Amino acid sequence: MGDEYRENDNYNYDPHTHEQKDGFQGSSDDLDKRIEDIKRLVVQGANEAQQRIKRVVDRAGGYWQQSQTTPMPHQPSSVEEHRIRQLANMWSNQNWRVARELGTYMEVRSLRTDEVWEVTLETRWETRTMEIVNEPYQGRNVGMPRPLLPVWDYQLADVVGLKAPLTRTRLNDLDEVVSCTNCNSTGHVLCSNCNGRGWIVCPECKGRTKKRCTTCRGRGYISDVTPGGEKKPFFQRQADTLMRSVSGKFSDALDGIRQQGVPVPNPMDTDPASKGPVIPCPDCVKGEMPCTCGNGKRVCDVCEGARMALCNNCAGTGKLVRHREIVRSFDLRTQARIVGESVIPSQYLEKSHGDLVYSAEITEPLYADAPPDEVPNDVWRSAVEMINAEQRQDKPGIDPQTQSRPTLQVVELVRIPYTVVDYHYADQDYTLYIYDNEGQEKFYADSYPVRWDRIDRLFKAISNDLLTPAPGAAPGATGTPTSSEESNRGYKAERTTGGYRVPIEFSPYEPEEEEGEKKPEKPDDNQGFNGNDYRYR
Fold first, then answer.
1. Locations of Low complexity compositional bias (predicted)?
2. C-alpha to C-alpha distance for 437 and 353, rounded to whole angstroms
3. Dihedral over alpha carbons 75, 80, 86, 92 (to 10 degrees)
4. What is the pLDDT at residue 55?
């Protein structure tokens, strides 16, 4: 601010006439007045915020007492109401979101019972396919084959259980004796091990008639004995023997890998020439010794040199027995339907146990007009519709012999009772649904008293007090000018929403223009603001 005053002094000073221009004194008075107005508004806003906080603190104790106040307990008027209150307490103890001891403090308005039915239909679908299987001929007379029928025309053994595994059933009196095409009815084929040659390449020498010496490992020399009759200690001799044995086995493994064409280096130095004097190997010539095969060949172990082997398909008989098998695969499908009106979602009701009223295997047609005992007409009618719709799932344009068919159906009718409880709690009305059998009760509610509802109301009350102005405050006491003041002074205030903010206002006074004096221009938004750039132009 001091720099600005100095710059303003230089600006108002006329270097030609060496005189101070008029008007600077008036501008200084306006700035001082503006600063005083800003200080007054800031202090006034801080006082207002302090008064509101003090008022909230004074009332916080009362709000807390109100939030901790619990409703009066209610006594049950009947045995059924006593049971409902116990169940409500159990629900509130299991669910941390529900108010504690709900059954003790809720005011029961009405109780009513109702029921829904769950219809469950389990259908086992069977798919049949026919496969041709060949087996070696055993010399048994098969007789004349019978005509071949469609797969669903054969009466097969019953399969027990809804979840049945895949089964194979051989059809009798359909066997045929045919010639083996693999061996052309000879019963013999070329040996697959030697490709009909009767011999194989020697696996030891690879057909070279010579193999590597095992004594010197193909080097042609071995280490000499210890010179001068020097004798090593016992433990040193044992360690050297163990080391030679391990290094020899490791070198053999690496040599076998190298013979397969993989260039693997030997990290262990097993060359005896690097450890002392050596002598020629007495068991070989230049590291090679004759192979036991003599000519690089071995007689085939499979055909023993006969070049022919028995046919695996016909076991050497030259004939096959062709028979047919019906392969039966099963697929279980389950359908469930809730019959009756209830607010409880179906996915919750399907997980309940209920009372099993009717369960039977469908072996004959069912009629909708003949329900079993203790089963309502609408429930039985819905079950019959499900069964008939499941049995009539034929696909048009497809051969019926290749389609799956329902071979076993089991229907179950389960009664699920529930109780509707209308109650009043904390000046609000709620509804609770208790369903399933006694001892297995489950609960459902669209809305319920929240355990932290009182604390929530406490914070809401405190927030309302913070946002509410002090009673009896004069208009404009909060630092916000009235509409008349805004119109008279040209005041433009930025309105804010949300929480409480201490109002800070700009001075409503604006310096009047004098002759030869211009208003200061605001700096460009695109440039950085600097107090030295704010000058009268």
1. 468-482
2. 7
3. -100
4. 73
Cα separation of 82 and 99, whole Å? 18
Residue 357 CB contacts under 8 Å (≥ 6 apart), including other chains: 372, 374, 375, 413, 414, 415
Give the tokens for residue 15. 């270097």
Tokens of 121: 């239909």
In angstroms, rounded to a whole number, what is the distance separating the alpha carbons of residues 130 and 150?
9
Q: Which residues of 400-434 are buried (b: 16+ CB within 10 A; e: fewer)?
A: eeeebebbbbebbbbbbbbbbbebebbeeebbbbb
Query: Do 123 and 406 form a contact (C-beta atoms < 8 A)?
Result: yes
- Token pair, residue 314, equals 């016909």
Residue 127 in contact with residue 447, Cβ under 8 Å? no
89 pLDDT tier (thresholds 50, 70, 90): very high
What is the C-alpha separation between 217 and 252, in angstroms, rounded? 8
Does residue 510 have a pLDDT over 70?
no
Q: CB–CB of 122/410 below 8 Å?
A: yes
SS3 279: strand
Each domain of the chain, given as residue ranges in start order, spans 2-65+463-533, 118-174+329-393+401-417
- pLDDT band for position 169 (50/70/90)? very high
Say how far residue 241 (Cα) sits from the centre of its chain.
60
Element (H or E) spanning 5, and its range? Answer: helix 2-12
Residue 118 has what pLDDT?
A: 95
What CA–CA distances, in Å, run from 319 to 146, 184, 187? 20, 9, 8
Residue pair 441/87 in contact by the 8 Å Cβ criterion = yes
